[in-house]
Amino acid sequence: MSLKLYLHPLASYCWKVLLALYENATPFESVLIDLGDPAMRAEFAKLWPFAKFPVLRDEARDETVPESTIIIEYLAEHYPGRVELIPQDRDAARNVRFCDRFFDLYVHTPMQTIVGDRNRPPGSKDPYGVEQARATLRTAYDRIEREMATKRFAASDTFSMADCAAAPALYYANRVLPFGSTLPNTAAYLERLLDRPAFRRVMSEAEPYFAMFPG
C-alpha cells in the first residue's frame, strides 16, 4: 500500500488527518506509534526527527509529509476524492485555510495546554497558563457560536479541511471546558460532525484508548 499514516488513535491531530482519509475512502495503512516505547520512538524519529505525529509516508512518490494541515493539502493534491476538502476557487480555499488555522490555533492549542497541564507532576503546574488557555477558548467559542448561526460547516455549507480541524478540536475542548447547552449553535455543529460516518469511525477506533485521556 502506497500510503502509511504514523499515528496514535487518541491523538487529536491524528483524528484530523484520519477524517480527511475516511471522508474520501482513501486507502492507507495505519502505523500505531507508542512514544512511551524508547525503541519505537527512536525508529519513528528516523522518519521525522521531532517524533510528533501524524506523519504521512507515501512510498509511491517517495515523500514524507508531517503536520496535519500539510498532509491534508498533500492528499487533496495527489489523492483527491469525492469530498473536495480544499475548494478550487481561490477565495473559498483561502477561507477554508483560515478556518483550519483558527481551529488549530485558538481551539486545539489552548485545549492541549489544559490537557498537558493535567499531566504535569505536582509542583510543576501552570495555573496562569491554564487560565490564559481557558480565556482563549472562551473567545473562540464566542466566535464559533456567531459563525455557526448561519453556516452548516466551518467555512461554508460544505464539509472541508476546516471541519477536519474543527471536529477533534471541539470534541476535546468540550471535555476540558464544556459549552453544552450554553452555546446551542456550537453544540449543534459538533453534533453534525459527530454524526458523520468518518467521525464515528475515528471515535470507534479511539475508544479502547479513552481511559488514557486525563480527566
SSE blueprint:
Layout: E1 3-7, H1 12-23, E2 29-32, H2 38-47, E3 55-58, E4 63-66, H3 68-78, H4 90-118, H5 127-147, H6 161-176, H7 184-194, H8 197-206
Parallel strand pairs: 1-2
Antiparallel strand pairs: 1-3, 3-4
Q: How does this structure look, described?
A:
With 215 residues, the chain is α+β, with helices and mostly antiparallel strands. It has 2 domains: 3-78, Glutaredoxin (3-Layer(aba) Sandwich), CATH 3.40.30.10; 90-197, Glutathione S-transferase Yfyf (Class Pi), Chain A, domain 2 (Up-down Bundle), CATH 1.20.1050. The protein has 8 helices and 4 strands, in the order βαβαββαααααα. A 4-stranded mixed β-sheet has the order 2-1-3-4, covered by helices on one side. Strand 1 (3-7), helix 1 and strand 2 form a beta-alpha-beta unit. Helix 4 packs parallel to helix 6. It is globular and about 50 Å long. The model has no long low-confidence stretch (mean pLDDT 95).
The count of strands amounts to 4
Q: Determine the strand fraction and express it as a percent band.
A: 5-15%
Q: Could you give the order of strands across the largest sheet? A: 2-1-3-4
* Share of helical residues: 55-70%
Q: Span from first to last CA?
A: 37 Å
Gyration radius, in Å: 17 Å
- Low-pLDDT parts are none
How do you describe this structure in short?
By secondary structure, the chain is α+β, with helices and mostly antiparallel strands. It is 56% helix and 8% strand.
Core attributes:
215 residues, Glutathione S-transferase Yfyf (Class Pi), Chain A, domain 2, single chain, 2 domains, 8 helices, alpha+beta, 4 strands, Glutaredoxin
